[in-house]
Design goal:
By secondary structure, the chain is mainly beta. It contains nine helices and 29 strands.
Length: 476
């Protein structure tokens, strides 16, 4: 471990020996050393050593290739990079660099970019001493986006090393709240950045679990004119310019926080701070944004709640919330008039037979398994009267995936699954993106493709539904 410049080492006694506390018992003093250390990533991965008791990440350092690289360049190319925090084999947090950038603008010093991480807002201290059977890891995900601009990465952490009494008193054994971040960037067009719109209709049901609100990011957020939030076709929140100014929390010129409970702050990490939150998994919700001036994209971040309990040197999670980070366009989030949004028909079953039983007219707007505005003219096209009952609006991805036992050996540099970050072993099954050639564990990508038909890495449409076996092709 290398100390950063002007590192701090402090030795302190919590209590003086020989004194008594207010309960009449004798205090036992503890000794703790507080320091700042820099940890270097190797192959975009960092595993914390066991020679510390407690740690708090504070800065992510990007060592720039060129001293003339600007903040704007790093921000534009690094928008899809995020930090993956794991304890054992469990992913606890995925934090996009773009939200860190908005919460506190980074600084460049001596050819290095320092990006502050408000880790207390997301998780709090990591008690390494209480996780002796679990590795604590941080990974840089999608680093290839900045490979031409960033030489390597490192992490500055505040560390604590104490005696045995300190360790016993500082291992968290209570239920603690985690604030997780999911993101969704909606572009007018993924293929043409020149296409712009002054209205964005964003389906937010893909965000997991309970949410206390959304960060809304777009160029010059001061030009945001109106926010409408819908649940199951009904208007839940309608903010005009005055309400946006008084009820939303302004982060910077490009971001505001839109809360479901205006009395709660986004950076308060407690279960009480989620009072008034909405379980987005259990509703069909959407967000409609109107701007004075057209723009080509809007990015939404949801603050999700999760909790953990640390006991017996293990992390036990009572929820299974999985964060999502997506990029989509108007093909998925089409513009719809307010009147049509508020008259949307909600149907849980996805079969055409169930639609007919509900007496839904042919010109109705439907919400079916997170799909919106299903057009019945297209739905019934080419379907005969004898087999329409067996037709499903959202054809299952299982009908597209072909498990034909194709054998194809993965090159060493492409063995890591881009979803679970684990190596695809010999004879394991996987699928491969036809555009970027990245490979993914069969189960992980199968789950991904049931929600969206794009590559998790390059976001291009997924076209190769063959399942491969990681082995040499022995056929001649």
């Amino acid at each position: 471990m290398n100390n950063i410049n002007a590192s701090l080492m402090q030795l302190s006694l919590n209590e003086r020996a020989g004194t008594t506390n207010i309960y009449g018992s004798r205090n036992i003093h503890t000794t703790v050393a507080v320091d700042f250390h820099t940890y270097n990533f190797e192959n975009f991965k960092l595993i914390f050593s066991r020679n510390i008791d407690k740690i708090m990440p504070e800065y992510l350092i990007l060592n720039l290739q060129d001293n003339n690289t600007t903040l704007e360049t790093i921000f534009n190319y690094g928008r899809n990079i995020y930090i993956n925090f794991q304890i054992g084999d469990q992913t606890i947090l995925n934090i996009p660099l773009s939200i860190l950038w908005n919460l506190k603008e980074p600084e460049i010093c001596d050819g290095k970019l320092y990006l502050e991480i408000p880790f207390e807002m997301f998780f709090g201290n990591i008690y390494i001493a209480g996780l002796q059977f679990r590795e604590v890891k941080i990974n840089i995900v999608n680093p290839m986006h900045l490979i031409n601009y960033v030489r390597d990465y490192s992490l500055v952490c505040k560390t604590y090393i104490g005696d045995s009494q300190y360790r016993r008193n500082n291992v968290d054994t209570s239920n603690c709240c985690i604030q997780q971040i999911s993101s969704l960037e909606v572009k007018v067009s993924l293929n043409n950045p020149e296409n712009v719109s002054d209205e964005f209709r964003i389906i937010t049901s893909s965000f997991p679990g309970f949410s206390k609100g959304f960060f809304i990011e777009s160029n010059n957020i001061n030009y945001l004119d109106n926010i409408r939030f819908y649940i199951n076709g009904e208007t839940r929140i309608n903010f005009n310019r005055l309400m946006i100014r008084n009820k939303c929390q302004r982060i910077n010129n490009n971001m505001i926080f839109f809360p479901f409970n205006p009395d709660i702050s986004y950076n308060e990490r407690s279960f009480n701070s989620f009072t008034g939150s909405i379980n987005l998994n259990e509703t069909h919700s959407s967000l409609k944004l109107n701007f004075y001036t057209p723009r080509n994209a809007v990015k939404i971040y949801s603050i999700n709640m999760n909790d953990y309990t640390q006991r017996n040197s293990e992390i036990i999670r009572s929820q299974n919330t999985i964060t999502t980070h997506l990029i989509e366009d108007f093909t998925r989030h089409s513009l719809t008039h307010i009147e049509r949004i508020e008259s949307t028909t909600i149907i849980n079953d996805i079969s055409v037979n169930s639609i007919i039983e509900n007496n839904v007219p042919l010109n109705a707007n439907l919400i079916i398994e997170n799909e919106i505005n299903v057009n019945f003219n297209n739905l019934y096209a080419g379907i005969s009267d004898t087999n329409y009952n067996n037709y499903y609006i959202n054809n299952s991805v299982d009908t597209l995936i072909v498990d034909a036992g194709f054998r194809r050996l993965i090159p060493e540099e492409r063995k890591t699954c881009g979803i679970n970050l684990e190596e695809i072993g010999a004879n394991q099954k996987y699928m491969s993106c036809a555009e970027c050639a990245n490979n993914f564990n069969k189960i992980s990508i199968g789950i991904w493709l049931t929600q969206r038909r794009t590559c998790p890495t390059c976001r291009c449409n997924w076209t190769d539904f063959n399942i491969y076996i990681n082995a040499e092709n022995t056929q001649t």
